[in-house]
Specification:
This protein is of the alpha/beta class and 534 residues long. Helix content is 33%, strand content 18%. The chain folds into two domains: 321 residues, Rossmann fold (3-Layer(aba) Sandwich); 187 residues, no CATH class.
Length: 534
Amino acid sequence: MAIYLELRTEYHLKSLALALGARSVAGWSPAEEALAKNTAAFSEKDAANYRKIIEKGEDPLGDTFCYLRTPEKRRELGATYTPRYVSQTMVKWAFDQKFDPVRVVDPGVGSANFLRLAAKKFPNAELVGVDIDPLATLMARANLAVAGLADRSKVICGDYRTVRLPKAKGKTLFIGNPPYVRHHQLSTEAKTWLTEEAGKLGLSCSQLAGLHVYFFLATALKARKEDFGTFITSAEWLDVNYGKLVRELFLNQLGGQGITVIEPTSSTFEDAATTSAIAQFIIGSKPTKIRMKRVKYIDQKGALTAGQMLHRNRLETENRWSPLTRKIVDIPKGYVELGELCRVHRGQVTGANRVWIAGMHSADLPESVLFPTVTRAKELFAAGAVLADVSLLRRVIDIPADLSVFDKEDRKAIDRFMKVAKSAGANDGYVAKNRRAWWSVGLRTPAPILATYMARRAPAFVRNLADARHINIAHGLYPRDPMSTELLNRLANFLSTAVSMHQGRTYAGGLTKFEPREMERIPVPSPEMLESMA
């Protein structure tokens, strides 16, 4: 960041902004008028020197602003300015979409670096910048004026959340670095806005959300179908509870296309040691695959284009997304991660196997509540490649929450069983108390492939032709998209021979465990490769 000795105070900074032509850009506000009253004339010679510096692509106004205001002071309004090379990469992504927007909107315009770069790529687009800080909007106006963009620019000093954008006759590009302000600095009125506006979209929100979450929501509300955009923010929203709103917006209203996570070691922002995320979206789209990538530096080749293409259903079922940006292993050409083809779910926890696994205590229960179930890992090891015979499996009791579906005789039998279950304490455990009905175990539907996940040997992957259920001693593999019987057979056969113990998590004594998400990272042949296998 360059230091300009002539700009010793904010007084000098705003005086220079006016001398550079800030008044020539439309949208002046009372707040800016008030700020502009207390200024002095800036010499034409000095103004001309700064004009030359700006014309070279540098930002003396923004650099000085960041020098005069400490990081602590700037954080009150979330003013963390984006390095030019990052802005360039994001603008290039937008240009590569070949959408030719009629308008470019930066919701936290700062000194207008994003708009100046976008103006070169989109020479016919209107440029609209929004910022709540009148000194920032003066700088933005000055930079746009020097760049010769005053006639197609408008800068608004106001709150992006409530700013009304006229309907554009074409696509709008939303691009920028939404301000990062923690929730405890936000007013009760602001939090009410978040709750009410999210509710209009049928979404819930957390009052712990930072300001960047509000900007994602505001964009979803302002944008129209086929608008597009890219924002760089803190990466927190990928994993934390309050980020659920952004994750839902990304997958739905915003039409998320890809996410690039930048490691904090890159020092993307000089005054903020944080992991950053660049999100890209196209309103109204719902891609089957979403690009996820983690990079050390944003100028890394393919930072916003290359990466893992993950099935959107995988993101829909995850509460934490940052692990999905990490490649645990190198994926061979033509292969994908198992999680792209199948969701992996651990079986249901009964909370009391002695009660919910059928036996003498449940002898007169109706057959409709007794389900052949894999209850021991050794049952899968013994089955070999295919589980076709359920005669050796025990049955698990799974009673519907709605007891009115039973006739009189069956209901009597169920009532007798429930008395026995209660006497054994089956209704008092943590699991039972957190069910919709304590007596309803809630077994998952039969998985086409069942797998062991903890043993002193590699997992067994077994085709479940018997439609057996499974409890939490096994994982079930559920295809994300329909798969033919032949493809399922080939996938199970591949997994049985290719997966080794070292791919899991090994504990003392040689016990190896595969958590569901770890199993989803196993490389497997793509559907096309599976089709070609003999």
